[in-house]
Design a protein that fits this description.
Elements lengths: L4 H20 L7 H6 L1 E3 L7 E3 L1 H9 L3 H8 L2 E4 L5 E6 L2 E6 L1 H20 L9 E5 L11 H19 L3 E8 L4 H12 L8 H15 L3 H16 L3 H23 L6 E4 H6 L2 H11 L4 E2 L9 E4 L1 H4 L4 H6 L6 E5 L7 H12 L6 E8 L8 E4 L4 E4 L5 E7 L3 H13 L3 H4 L2 E6 L2 E3 L20 H18 L9 H18 L7 E3 L1 H4 L7 H18 L18 H10 L1 H11 L2 H21 L9 H21 L9
Helix pairs in contact: 3-4, 5-22, 5-25, 6-23, 7-8, 7-9, 7-10, 8-10, 9-10, 12-15, 18-19, 21-24, 21-25, 22-24, 22-25, 23-24, 24-25
């Protein structure tokens, strides 16, 4: 296996410092993790890695950090695959790599790592991740808030896979909720026939039904429909499932336009049919995690006691605040389960704590990515779902407290390890030109224009086509419509993903479609420029041959090399923190650095430096394409 230069040098440098600290200052008793934490990658041209360990030691020994750093490493020459110098400066311990060998190793790794990623190496994945998104109610089209959910789930899934995890993309469909009951009532009672994309039609009907609910008799009829849906084996239950499935098919047509695909659908009605909740409650009662209250405030209820969380010092306890009682109800005195109970049961199922064999069928035989979508189904084959190692739930910030409560409940029932592996990927609201995204009020219909995910893509594609046609800057070779679609998708996805998930977004077409600045179109255009240089040069490269990098300088070319070297760590960091915006920031940094390099150094007229610079351009184009793919963005080869 080829060593990643970044990791190899970081670990080698950290190990040498650890050994020196252990020999010179054994009394400070610092371990390898603390030494490693002091080491950081440097962007300056004159140093590559630095350690601040002398400052930590100085606090312990009350000694000048400069003296400590000088005593540890005044100056040293390190030989090996990539030689480097170590020196101390103002209390820091710095490493400076041998430029040509480091650059050659980075460029070769960039090529070979790409080749290995395309091959089935047979290596064991780090674990199974169950990513649940976007879980939209099956009675309306995706609005742009749902789209942010889906794009986050898709990108995080891609990033986790790039970091070595196996990911199952799951969509939970609540087909027993009140909204579906309202739509089922409208489908049965209102004299209306679908005359457009089914989710759009159903969403418009949903708005009409809500107006009808001003009449008390309509509310009663809808509640009766809901009860019959929950009973199962009724005409109403069959109708509700039918329209929900048709709606999901229509929603997935939207998903496919955005290059978003799933592996599994889980329907709430199937969860109920398999008695998942009852089995979870039985298991918790047998393990004495649930209390059956016989008197007082919670008489007749089944509860979880949260007092041990409050007394444990857990960080979750602070989040619970003062608004909670010491107990949380799972089953009310009338036998009705709470939302928390259902969520606990479902996550016990996800982690394999309940041996439920679900019936699985095929929902869509073949998505545009060539893979099927499986679904829970009353008529499917019996199959046990594999236990996941991590569950990522992409849910809006309005549900922050409920997700915190879910994790707290698992600690309360003695399953701390599960609580720590339930990840709530929270995200803020999305707005576009002041529109209101409430489906109940019909605000997602907008004023004079729909602000569904479908319409956002349609309008953005039209605006992208206008820009491409009106500018003499671009040479379109892949067809105007296809290129405009890719530009539009890059604009939308980059704007939605470049902002940290917890922050709110206000989408602007003017900003998103710019071909300079921090946008998707800028990244695509930078990639196309790099590919054009390689095409004009007739560039053909054997990736298994170490490139000659003796022409590397201390300028923009080396800064670009260092940026490329950090790609693997950037992906690992994004995976650890579940943040696609880390990838987006890094992409902009690479594209901006490449632009400065391209302006300063004539690649095609580079003389003896020509081959090295072409190697660098090639590696940059590979990195941009791979990183854009992690955001779900396709490239354009020329424009």
């Amino acid at each position: 296996m080829l060593d990643e230069p970044y990791l190899y040098l970081l670990e080698d440098f950290a190990n040498r410092i650890y050994e020196r600290v252990r020999d010179r200052y054994p009394e400070v008793n610092l371990g390898e993790p603390e030494i490693r934490a002091s080491v950081s990658w440097q962007r300056a041209a004159d140093k590559d890695i630095a350690s601040s360990i002398a400052f930590k030691i100085s606090k312990i020994l009350r000694k000048n950090p400069r003296e400590i750093a000088d005593e540890l490493f005044k100056r040293a020459e390190i030989t090996g695959k990539i030689p480097y110098q170590i020196s101390s400066e103002n209390g820091y311990i710095n490493a400076r790599f041998e430029r040509a060998k480091f650059s050659g190793a980075v460029l070769q790794y960039a090529d070979l790592a790409t080749i290995m990623n395309k091959q089935d190496t047979g290596s064991k994945p780090k674990g199974l991740v169950l990513a649940e998104f976007p879980s939209v109610n099956p009675n309306k089209p995706w609005h742009i808030g749902h789209l942010r959910n889906a794009l986050l789930g898709d990108s995080v899934s891609r990033i986790m896979e790039a970091d070595g995890f196996s990911v199952t993309r799951q969509d939970y469909i609540d087909d027993l909720g009140l909204q579906v009951a309202e739509s089922a009532w409208g489908y049965i009672k209102l004299n209306s026939k679908p005359d457009k994309k089914f989710d759009q039609w159903l969403g418009e009907q949903y708005v009409i039904v809500n107006k009808e609910m001003e009449h008390e008799n309509v509310k009663e009829e809808i509640n009766h429909v809901l009860k019959l849906m929950e009973d199962g084996n009724t005409k109403e239950a069959e109708t509700a499932r039918l329209i929900a499935e048709r709606c999901v098919v229509a929603q997935y047509a939207t998903a496919f336009k955005y290059g978003i695909y799933h592996d599994m659908l889980v329907w709430e009605s199937d969860i109920i049919r398999e008695r998942l909740l009852e089995k979870a409650i039985d298991l918790l009662e047998k393990k004495h995690f649930i209390e059956n209250v016989t008197e007082g405030k919670y008489k007749g209820c089944k509860i979880i006691n949260l007092s041990n969380i409050r007394s444990s010092g857990s960080a979750l306890a602070e989040g619970l605040g003062e608004r909670d009682d010491e107990a949380k109800v799972l089953v009310r005195s009338n036998g009705a389960a709470t939302y928390l109970a259902k969520d606990i049961a479902f996550h016990m199922f996800k982690f394999g704590l309940i041996g439920v064999e679900m019936r699985i069928g095929t929902f869509i035989e073949k998505q545009p990515n060539g893979k099927p979508v499986y679904t829970t189904s009353a008529n499917g084959k019996v199959r046990m779902q594999p236990a996941c190692d991590m569950a990522i739930n992409v849910i809006g910030s309005a549900q922050d407290y409920l997700q915190l409560l879910l994790r707290s409940a698992f600690i309360a029932i003695g399953m701390d390890s599960i609580a720590n592996r339930i990840i709530h990927l929270s995200y803020g609201e999305v707005n576009i030109e002041g529109s209101d995204l409430s489906g109940r009020r019909g605000g997602w219909l907008g004023e004079g224009r729909n602000y569904t995910a479908d319409d956002l893509l349609s309008v953005t594609s039209s605006k992208a086509a206008e820009l491409l046609q009106s500018s003499k800057k671009f040479e379109i070779s892949e067809g105007l419509e296809d290129t405009a679609r890719k530009i539009a998708l890059s604009a939308i996805k980059f704007e939605f993903l470049k902002i940290s998930p917890e922050r709110r977004i206000t989408f602007s077409w003017e900003k998103a479609l710019k071909f300079d600045g921090e946008t998707g179109p800028y990244c695509i255009y930078t990639y196309a420029r790099a590919r054009k240089v390689l095409k004009n040069a007739g560039y053909i490269h054997d990736p298994r041959q170490m490139p000659d990098c003796s022409a590397v300088t201390e300028g923009e070319d080396y800064i670009l090399i260092k940026l490329l070297a950090a790609k693997g760590e950037c992906i690992r960091k994004a995976a650890r923190e579940f943040r696609p915006d880390i990838i987006a920031d890094y992409l902009i940094e690479i594209c901006s650095s490449f632009s400065r390099f391209y302006e300063k150094y004539p690649v095609l007229k580079g003389g003896e430096s020509r081959e090295f610079r072409l190697e660098l351009v090639s590696s940059v184009s590979i990195a941009i394409k791979e990183l854009l793919a992690l955001l779900g963005i396709e490239t354009v080869e020329s424009m």
